[in-house]
């Protein structure tokens, strides 16, 4: 905000003057970079996604003049079927970030503080500030693990990324059940952006717990970051709160192309399972290769790994990798400033990362 | 919310329990209806829009795995060029409803009340409630006109739809300048969703007034309601506030298809001008035909008209039209419950409306 004068600031709502917005990972416009910085899938979406958008162009391009279904019912139905829940247990939004924003508004504005880990998705503190939600940040332990005992105190809601980001560590479902049982009067949100790469989804617990909201996205495991479709699964009474919020903010968040494309993705379960397995395989190979180079790698259930090299400053390493055309994510933040978050790439990309480290940077 | 129990409501943030969400016009799934209820354009978008999405599918479908540009710079550039402003004077969002929501958060949360007309876009009171904005509703006069003198009192911001909806009446720019001059310390928002059908845009005033925000949409005049792209034009210091809000809510609101499609629309000025003129021509014809049937039609600069038939109850008329396969918008609201808002259709649709009224309903 440095170029805005105090005089100009008089127009801004006072609370907005204090906002510290989220800073997304860089989307460089440079060609031929190896982009391992924003946890995108290295593989393209299902060919059926492309075919579905093609079909919209061929058969209903004129319908672009018409608003989309405000409820995106076709998409909710496809998600419900794939997830094994009822359609009224599904909420959809313009990316899981919008879903999370609506979750904050719907469930977290109580008198007590929302709880989340200190090392987690860096949008949570941004939402807390945006919605003026009372907040208590809970440190993870020295192994970057969440201790569920910390979430058994009075609170205004709990949000936990599982697997956590940027640590990549997953909590097992029995630990999540402990948190759910300890908070019968508050909503517990499990943010499962990365769950499809080997962790256990809490969707299987939705019918058992009336205080559970699970949030997922099509951006990672479905290779649709370019499309902006996120969703939440919960019992119908919680989905109703999200709908009330959404319909007080923006009636039609999901456009006609996005609805058609996402439906096609959810209908192609075979492709989805295959691609996730490929990412997992690539991850296991990359972990071994980096460990052989002396890296310490946290146990990952995500499509990224969180690594540190005891002999080398992490910020410096990120800079040197960038000079070689490889971007990874570095967080200049207490506790994790000696770590790098590296997205799992294709076999070729991962190999080039390993070769660059071995032959050029650490030689 | 009738099916949510009080016990289940304990999870909801207290303020959310009170929300009265916006109710969009019906999007019926029935075929062969004449749909004159949501102010969509009767003509399809530019063929270049379809070609642009086709090009994404052919040349960069794999890029769907990647996040879109969070700033949608290509789209901002296309809008800036078409509107004759700088790129840092453009803000884009997921439909103009999202842009309006961000405007509320960015500019309207002061100690004084936001002002808007009693008869106007029915999302304004929803935003006021959602953001807990102090609000003072100003009655339009008996001719449904805005008296600018009413907007010269202390306030926390002003929002006026121009042309106004559902009245269709436009304010001339000199009247808007009076409001801008009377409020040097507060933002005045001119919501121009319908401006391209014959009203004067306040975009020409943006460089003159540091307190002006103009909001527009691609949903009406560009036939892209199905795509969800809205935008605001203002001086850079005001755009910065909107960016701070947007980046605290959702980093990537506009997907890759929507960016490509909207860019193509802004680059096809010739098609845009032609289609708007066709809608205006159809409007003028429809107004004459309805006046011949005894309707009173407010003077419209929009792609809809606001009409009343002294001899017939408006709600009853809407019901009878629906029975004949024609949907128009009826607001069961004080002051306007004897009016219908009718979207301008194709020549054939308008003719069928007139014929149905003449030969079946009013015979």
Automatic annotation (TrEMBL), chains A, B:
EC number: 2.6.1.9
Catalysis performed (reactions): L-histidinol phosphate + 2-oxoglutarate = 3-(imidazol-4-yl)-2-oxopropyl phosphate + L-glutamate
Pathway connected to this protein: Amino-acid biosynthesis; L-histidine biosynthesis; L-histidine from 5-phospho-alpha-D-ribose 1-diphosphate: step 7/9
Cofactor list: pyridoxal 5'-phosphate
Signal peptide: none
UniProt keyword annotation of Transport present: no
Transferase as UniProt keyword: yes
InterPro entries membership: Aminotransferase_I/II_large (IPR004839), HisP_aminotrans (IPR005861), HistidinolP_aminotransfase (IPR050106), PyrdxlP-dep_Trfase (IPR015424), PyrdxlP-dep_Trfase_major (IPR015421), PyrdxlP-dep_Trfase_small (IPR015422)
Alphabetized UniProt keyword annotations: Amino-acid biosynthesis, Aminotransferase, Histidine biosynthesis, Pyridoxal phosphate, Transferase
GO biological process: L-histidine biosynthetic process
UniProt lineage: Bacteria, Pseudomonadati, Pseudomonadota, Gammaproteobacteria, Moraxellales
Protein family according to the UniProt entry: Belongs to the class-II pyridoxal-phosphate-dependent aminotransferase family. Histidinol-phosphate aminotransferase subfamily.
GO molecular function: histidinol-phosphate transaminase activity; pyridoxal phosphate binding
Self-association and partners: Homodimer.
Protein name as it appears in the record: Histidinol-phosphate aminotransferase
Domain of life, source organism: Bacteria
Sequence positions bearing N6-(pyridoxal phosphate)lysine: 220
Broad class of enzyme this protein falls into: transferase
Domain Aminotransferase class I/classII large: 32-357
CDD domains: AAT_like (cd00609)
């Amino acid at each position: 905000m440095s170029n805005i004068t105090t005089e100009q600031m008089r127009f801004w709502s006072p609370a907005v003057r204090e906002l510290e917005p989220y800073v997304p990972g860089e989307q460089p416009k440079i060609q031929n970079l190896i982009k391992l910085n924003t946890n995108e899938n290295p593989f393209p979406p299902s060919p059926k996604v492309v075919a579905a958008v093609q079909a919209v162009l061929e058969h209903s391009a004129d319908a672009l003049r018409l608003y989309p279904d405000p409820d995106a019912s076709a998409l909710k139905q496809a998600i419900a079927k794939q997830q094994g829940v009822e359609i009224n247990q599904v909420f959809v939004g313009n990316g899981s970030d919008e879903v999370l924003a609506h979750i904050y508004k719907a469930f977290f504005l109580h008198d007590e503080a929302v709880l989340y880990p200190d090392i987690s998705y860096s949008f949570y503190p941004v939402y807390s500030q945006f919605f003026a939600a009372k907040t208590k940040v809970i440190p993870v332990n020295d192994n970057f693990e969440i201790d569920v005992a910390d979430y058994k105190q009075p609170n205004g809601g709990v949000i936990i990324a599982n697997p956590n980001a940027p640590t990549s560590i997953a909590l097992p479902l029995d630990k999540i059940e402990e948190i759910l049982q300890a908070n019968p009067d508050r909503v517990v949100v499990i943010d499962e952006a990365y769950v499809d790469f080997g962790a256990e989804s809490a969707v299987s617990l939705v019918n058992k717990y009336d205080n559970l909201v699970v949030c997922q996205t099509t951006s990672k495991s479905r290779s649709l970051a370019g499309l902006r479709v996120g969703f939440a699964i919960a019992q119908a009474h919680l989905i109703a709160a999200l709908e009330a919020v959404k319909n007080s903010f923006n009636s039609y968040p999901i456009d006609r192309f996005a609805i058609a494309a996402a439906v096609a993705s959810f209908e192609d379960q075979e492709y989805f399972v295959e691609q996730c397995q490929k990412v997992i395989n690539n991850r296991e190979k990359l972990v071994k290769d980096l460990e052989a180079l002396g890296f310490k790698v946290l146990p990952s259930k995500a499509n990224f790994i969180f690594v540190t090299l005891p002999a080398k400053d992490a910020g410096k390493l990120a800079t040197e990798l960038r000079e070689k055309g490889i971007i990874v994510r570095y967080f200049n933040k207490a506790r994790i400033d000696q770590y790098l978050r590296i997205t799992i790439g294709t076999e070729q990309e991962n190999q080039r990362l390993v070769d660059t480290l071995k032959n050029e940077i650490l030689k």
